[in-house]
């Protein structure tokens, strides 16, 4: 088991994160509990910024908020001087309500609604990343109606298949995202945006080929395709674009001895490709942006659960059920993700038994970890599942009406709530009983009463 970020094990054999005892955290805040190691998150943000500004001065690191977005996370990201990628009016609202500087917001999405586009324009976000022709036209119309100019990037699908789960591949031509690279329709759309749309200012291109990518060569290849395409636009249209956003996608360690590339190697690969190719093609070096999400927050997150039922099926398996599951972490059911965990209250003990960690949702597929070696597990133990910072809370649901867990930061021995635990009252907060149903209940009650009095 490899400890992440600031994790350590104390003399009681308890897992510490950010100098806080996770067993105490579980008792203090309840479980399930998302714990964010703030120092680890800040460290990744800094590694990214340092590496990219070293290899590509003037470049920009944009945190992809879809991985994990809360008001406090926005503040940390701003504090670390990263920009922010949002993909919906809701994410934009979250960022704005946390006072994130709008000029450092990039607005993504493959089907932005007219009101989302108007919201982006009114709040003067830094760039809208335009996904398709329909959106381009709609954006021009909306900007015209609002009397504004919008700076955009156009999203290109470079035609690259990555070695990752099919659901998180986005660079292949058969994708719902972006304009396919090099087609005459795409070139016409780019020319139109650059020359015939008075309220649009085309700043550059964008691509994103997928997520949880462990092989830098594919990310380098995407950069190569994009630079070549930019050179082609210059040759064909006389159009020189100043910006190139290469998306996110760098993988993280989920289990075992996986060794994901560091931001430093990533920055080096990208800069080598972009700079040498630009020189070769006599193209001015564009401003490069990257949009990491998972690799900033993923390993900084740990989820704490309390063990409940432990059930043995002789000669088959031992199920250990915890008080959360696919509602707070749908990634196992969706992508067959593999997680690593430890018993936070027995972190120094040797693993002795093979168990399967089950969630508490009414689905056989609600398994968090199939086959993991742990020390002898008993009800009441605290299970810490690692690398849950990205795409856990942001994809969580209330399935089976489980309230979503609280989230805390731990930092230099101090823990603080950044998302309150949902309550049962929250679960029915938006429910309404139409008068018709309220009346029918009254009638039924009235009927019963009059029947009783007869
Ligand atoms: N930029 C764009 C345009 C994206 O679509 C994404 C992720 C990112 C950046 C950030 O990618 P990252 O660095 O986090 O890999 N729910 C899936 C992942 C979906 C990724 C969606 N787009 C999962 O849990 O694996």
At a glance:
By secondary structure, the chain is an alpha/beta fold.
Describe the structure.
The chain is an alpha/beta fold. It has two domains: 8-36 and 298-425, Beta Barrel (Lyase, Ornithine Decarboxylase, Chain A, domain 1), CATH 2.40.37.10; 38-294, Alanine racemase (TIM Barrel), CATH 3.20.20.10. It has 13 helices and 21 strands. The strands form three sheets. Strands 4, 14, 15, 16, 17, 18, 19, 20 and 21 form a nine-stranded mixed β-sheet that branches. An eight-stranded parallel barrel has the order 5-6-7-8-9-11-12-13, surrounded by seven helices. Strands 1-2-3 form a three-stranded antiparallel β-sheet. Helix 2 (38-55) runs parallel beside helix 9 (263-281) and helix 5 (114-122) packs across helix 6 (133-146). The longest helix is centred in the middle third of the chain and has 22 residues, at 216-237. It is globular and about 80 Å long. The model has no long low-confidence stretch (mean pLDDT 95). Ligand LLP is lined by residues 64, 66-67, 85, 108, 168, 208, 211-212, 247-250, 291-295, 331, 335, 390-391, 395.
Radius of gyration, CA atoms, in whole angstroms: 25 Å
Q: Would you report the number of β strands?
A: 21
The helicity comes to 25-40%
SS field, number of helical segments: 13
In this entry the ligands are: ligand LLP
**Largest pleated sheet:** 9 strands, mixed
CATH homology superfamily name of the largest domain:
Alanine racemase
**How many structural units, i.e. domains?**
2
- What is the overall shape? globular
Structural class: alpha/beta
Classified by CATH, the class of the largest domain is Alpha Beta
Mean pLDDT: 95
Percent strand equals: 15-25%
Gap between N and C termini, in Å?
72 Å
CATH topology of the largest domain: TIM Barrel
CATH-level-2 architecture of the largest domain:
Alpha-Beta Barrel
């Amino acid at each position: 088991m490899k400890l992440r970020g600031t994790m350590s094990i104390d003399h009681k054999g308890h897992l510490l994160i950010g100098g806080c005892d996770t067993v105490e955290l579980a008792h203090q805040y309840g479980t399930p509990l998302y714990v964010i190691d703030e120092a680890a998150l800040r460290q990744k943000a800094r590694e990214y910024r340092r590496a990219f500004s070293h290899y590509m001065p003037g470049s920009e690191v944009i945190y992809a908020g879809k991985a994990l977005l809360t008001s406090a996370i926005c503040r940390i990201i701003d504090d670390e001087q990263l920009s922010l990628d949002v993909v919906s009016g809701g994410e934009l609202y979250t960022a704005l309500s946390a006072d994130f500087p709008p000029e450092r917001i990039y607005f993504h999405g493959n089907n932005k609604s007219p009101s989302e586009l108007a919201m982006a324009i009114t709040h003067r976000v830094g760039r809208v990343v335009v996904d398709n022709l329909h959106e381009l036209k709609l954006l021009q119309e909306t900007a015209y109606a609002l009397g504004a100019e919008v700076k955009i990037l156009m999203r290109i699908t470079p035609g690259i298949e990555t070695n990752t789960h099919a659901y998180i591949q986005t660079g292949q031509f058969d994708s719902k995202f972006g304009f396919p690279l090099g087609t005459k329709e795409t070139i016409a759309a780019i020319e139109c945006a650059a020359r015939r749309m008075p309220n649009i200012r085309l700043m550059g291109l964008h691509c994103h080929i997928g997520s949880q990518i462990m092989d830098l060569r594919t990310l380098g290849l995407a950069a190569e395709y994009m630079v070549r395409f930019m050179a082609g636009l210059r040759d064909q249209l006389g159009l020189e674009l100043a910006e190139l956003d290469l998306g996110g996608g760098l993988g993280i360690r989920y289990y075992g001895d996986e060794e994901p590339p560091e931001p430093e190697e990533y920055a080096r690969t990208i800069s080598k490709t972009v700079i040498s190719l630009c020189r070769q093609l006599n193209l001015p070096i564009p401003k490069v942006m990257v949009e990491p999400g998972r690799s900033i927050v993923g390993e900084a997150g740990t989820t704490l659960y309390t063990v409940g039922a432990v059930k043995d099926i002789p000669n088959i398996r031992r199920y250990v059920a915890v008080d959360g599951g696919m509602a707070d972490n749908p990634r196992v059911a969706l992508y067959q993700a593999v997680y690593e965990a430890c018993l936070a209250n027995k972190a120094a003990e040797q693993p002795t038994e093979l168990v399967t960690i089950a969630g508490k949702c009414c689905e056989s597929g609600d398994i968090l970890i199939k086959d993991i070696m742990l020390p002898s597990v008993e009800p009441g133990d605290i299970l810490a599942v690692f690398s849950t910072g990205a795409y856990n809370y942001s994809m969580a649901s209330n399935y089976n009406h489980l309230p979503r867990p609280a989230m805390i930061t731990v930092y230099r021995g101090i823990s603080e709530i950044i998302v309150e635990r949902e309550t049962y009252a929250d679960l029915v907060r938006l429910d309404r009983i139409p008068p018709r149903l309220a009346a029918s209940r009254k009638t039924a009650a009235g009927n019963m009463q009059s029947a009783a009095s007869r």
